[in-house]
TrEMBL record:
Protein name per the record: D-lactate dehydrogenase (cytochrome)
Homology family: Belongs to the FAD-binding oxidoreductase/transferase type 4 family.
Domain of life assignment: Bacteria
Cofactor(s) needed: FAD
GO BP annotations, alphabetical order: lactate catabolic process
EC number from the UniProt entry: 1.1.2.4
Source species: Antarctobacter heliothermus
Keyword GTP-binding: no
Annotated signal sequence range: none
Keyword terms of this UniProt record: FAD, Flavoprotein, Oxidoreductase, Transit peptide
Keyword Amino-acid biosynthesis: no
Positions of the FAD-binding PCMH-type domain: 35-213
Single GO term (MF): FAD binding
Length: 464
């Protein structure tokens, strides 16, 4: 194998924390979607920044690919070692390094998951807000520029990372940003690393913003006769400036998925799942304002969830949307895709995607963080059915084109990975040349997560 010499050197460094076992390689080749298993040549489990630096130095010297691995929940195949080499499993670097309650910040290692972090923060009265549903690692979330249900109120991970420590392709360790809330000192490498999908460097520490736990939290649901009414309600709510903590849309197919997967017993109509945060008076006021808008939009079946158990049950159901979509096509895989549009075009984008799914004879669910104009379609596909895969590809492509035509983007949160590279030229045009130059400057040998994010050159040439 071409990477054998690097692997031999890594065994010297890591001992049994470098494995080439078939089982571990296959485990690290799995993904949550329809991509075939893609095992790396070996899996490394570093314990420290120093070890990450040593690993990268060895891999750089031997031109051996390195793909960082967090919790493997990414949905565009980002963590798959497409060109072999090393899967750099960050799970042992999972400590909270410090918490500064007075500054509302903490510094953590990248392998820590968001649930582990919130567990550690519980006694402080603070919480980390970014919630992509899956129990993703903080490093993976930063690398994919994740968001989720609470971004409408608290921002995406991009808004919640103040500083990073990163190991560059040749093993050099850098720091960018600080614990201060803002800085005006040169190029913003912190935010360049966020969303770079492990192609520019390996994140080894992150300093995060925290938020105070709200005094009062109330969740609620309501339903509508059609998606148009639900979306009209969302648009009016956002335009009125009601500070929604969560506002999630589920179309009737998604509700059918919940009924099938979790016996939810919900009427199969479009629903909004909502959450309000604040002081008790403020929450009551927000809910009253929302209810007025909802009624004008045709909402019915208003239900609230005030106890922690009821709220947790509601959001657990929402967070299982991926698996509930899968329940609609037993034995099939889910091809998830997301786009994000300006909120004023949300209704048009959703209506178009529903019509496309029907036209292409695909089973599709729609669910979304619609307060941000971001929604997901989950297609049931059989990877061995070439015709169905072609129709799913047409759906995804048309949805991306629709988002761009409406002034949006082909991904609000899932990222590019393998699945959306052919959109990069269309969305970014000449800016892609500068992205390529950045990659070249950061990783001249191309060892960091090769084959991801930037499309192969020939795609760009074909588009010119
Ligand atoms: C059920 C379900 C629901 C989801 N819902 C959402 C959602 O609502 N919003 C959303 O944004 N996403 C969602 N996702 C996708 C996923 O959770 C995110 O993409 C997440 O941020 C990935 O984190 P991870 O730790 O699993 O990273 P991985 O999948 O392991 O890796 C993702 C990428 O990050 C890189 N990476 C990992 N660690 C590092 C590091 N330390 N340094 C540099 N690069 C690194 C990897 O190389 C890879 O390119 C969902 C996924 C599932 C399965």
């Amino acid at each position: 194998m071409p990477n054998d010499t690097a692997i031999a050197a890594l065994v010297q460094l890591l001992g049994d924390r470098l494995t080439t076992s078939e089982a571990d390689r296959r485990l690290h080749g799995q993904n949550e979607t329809y991509y075939p298993n893609t095992p790396p040549d070996a899996v490394a489990y570093p314990d420290s920044t120093t070890e990450v630096s040593q690993i990268l130095k060895i891999c750089h010297d031997h031109t051996c690919p390195v793909t960082a691995y967090g919790a493997a929940s990414s949905l565009e195949g980002q963590h798959l070692a497409l060109r072999g080499g090393i899967s750099l499993d960050m799970s042992r670097m999972n400590r909270v390094l410090s918490i500064q309650p007075e500054d509302l910040t903490c510094t953590v290692q990248p392998g820590l998951t968001r649930k582990q972090l919130n567990e550690e923060l519980r006694a402080t009265g603070l919480f980390f807000s970014v919630d992509p549903g899956a129990d993703a690692s903080i490093g993976g979330m930063a690398a994919t520029r994740a968001s989720g249900t609470t971004a409408v109120r608290y921002g995406t991970i991009r808004d919640n990372v103040l500083a990073v420590e990163a190991v560059m392709a040749d093993g050099t360790v850098i720091r960018s940003g600080s614990r201060a809330r803002k800085s005006a000192t040169g190029y913003d490498l912190t935010h360049l690393m966020i969303g770079s999908e492990g192609t520019l460097g390996i994140l080894t520490e992150l300093t995060l913003k925290l938020h105070g736990q709200p005094e009062c939290i109330t969740a609620a649901t309501c339903r509508f006769e059609n998606v148009g009414q639900a979306v009209a309600c969302v648009i009016a709510t956002i335009q009125c400036g009601i500070p929604m903590a969560r506002i999630e849309l589920l179309d009737h197919m998604m509700v059918r998925g919940f009924n099938t997967y979790a016996n939810a017993g919900l009427p199969e109509e479009p629903h909004l799942f909502l959450e309000f945060h604040g002081a008790p008076g403020a929450v009551a006021e927000q809910m009253a304002s929302f209810e007025e808008i909802a009624q004008d939009s045709g909402a019915r079946g208003w239900r609230t969830a005030t106890t922690t158990e009821d709220r947790n049950a509601l959001w657990a159901m929402r967070h299982n949307a991926h698996y509930a979509s899968a329940a609609l096509g037993p034995g099939k895989h889910i091809w998830p895709t997301d786009v994000c549009v300006p909120i004023s075009h949300l209704a048009e984008a959703i209506a178009q995607s529903q019509a496309d799914a029907k036209r292409l004879n695909l089973t599709a669910t729609i669910v979304g963080h619609v307060g941000d104009g971001n929604f997901h379609a989950g297609l049931s596909v059989d990877p061995n059915d070439a015709d169905e895969m072609a129709r799913a590809h047409t759906f995804t492509h048309t949805l991306g084109e629709t988002a761009l035509r409406l002034g949006g983007t082909v991904s609000g949160e899932h990222g590019i990975g393998i699945g959306k590279q052919d959109f990069m030229t269309v969305e970014h045009g000449p800016a892609l040349t500068y992205m390529r130059a950045i990659k070249q400057a950061f990783d001249p040998k191309g060892i960091l997560n090769p084959g991801k994010l930037l499309p192969p050159e020939f795609l760009q040439e074909a588009a010119e």
